[in-house]
Design a protein that fits this description.
This protein has 409 residues and is mainly alpha-helical. It has a domain of 103 residues. It is built from 20 helices and 2 strands. A two-stranded antiparallel ribbon has the order 1-2.
Amino acid sequence: MSLLLNLMLPPILGTLIGYFTNDIAIRMLFRPYRPWYVGRYRLPFTPGLIPSNQGRLASRIADTITRSLLTPEELQNIARRLLQLERTQAAIYWLLQTALNQVKLEEYKARTAKILAGILHDFLGRSLPRLLRILARQEDFLAEQINQIFDRFLLEFRLSAPQAEQVADWLLELVLTPDLLRRALVDFLTDETIDVIDQDLREQTTGTYWVVANFFGVRNALIRLRRFCIEEPETANQRLAELMQSLGLKSRLTELIQELSLQNLPVVTMHKLRKQLRELVREYLQTDGPALIQNLSDSLNWDEIAHLILTRLRSSSVMNSSLSLISEELALIIERYLEKDLEQVIAQVIPILDIDQAIIDRVNATSPADLEAGIQGIVRTELQAIVNLGGILGLLVGLGQSLWLWGQT
């Protein structure tokens, strides 16, 4: 029995020692979670290896992940996969649809209308006048547009027969009335004017007209005409009206107005008119245009306009049907931008994300118990195999000792 006990005891003790030694060693990686003290002295190996080096472990994990796993190239690949055209378009469409749905809710309508009114008022009343004043300083500002308006509308503009007749009626009723013509005739026939006319006729006429001008003259006739217009205004007005009617002034004026067109002017004159029109528009936009736009903006009820716009958007079928097209266009713009500048964007995003510090903070914030549970959950089988291997090695060593003792006996 003594020999048998001596031969069996080494394998049993070796197995127990090897098994529990590895098990204790593995447990000492995590435990104890806090340091143990005897008086003022801290016991060695407390806390465990991982809790005592958790900060350094966190730095190593972060360094490994950022250097080997989440490299800038890998982040670019991840960004490309996340920002594929279909995903980007779907995300933009969802955002636009969500915004439109928010606008449709009554509780958000007043606030949205107030924001929209402020934006419109600021743009039209402040930003647009300053922008126009700056742009109008450029010599080619609106040059092409003004030239097109001049060539397509002003150059080819001509009144129709009814329109020309209406303009002629307006001129005869308000501008070329008999009374106004009589007054103009009185103002024109001054003594100096009569003398000039009489002298010119005496010097310039020939033949029969010379005889009339030199022997009879027109001075007395013009003086009597002026006196007649002054002393008998009603009769003079009636005679002028009869004269205008007999001369067919309305029809002649209508034909003249209808024939008016810029195309009848010389080419050089049209070019000058076009240039003068551009300069006039630029000068107006620099001086009076901004003030006019600002006054117009201040006079408008932007709150009511914003409510009308939002109401229109809520019931607009075009807006709902356009969301898909808008999201597709925006997704294409983002895709073209990322193809060109994705590397620079990732280089700017990495410092902002601060991935390594986030990993360090996360590992440091994890309790030793949770850290042990996490590692055990990943490599539980491997750790148990190490413990079992310790028991097997202890058994082999014990068997070797037993064989050696048996050989000695």
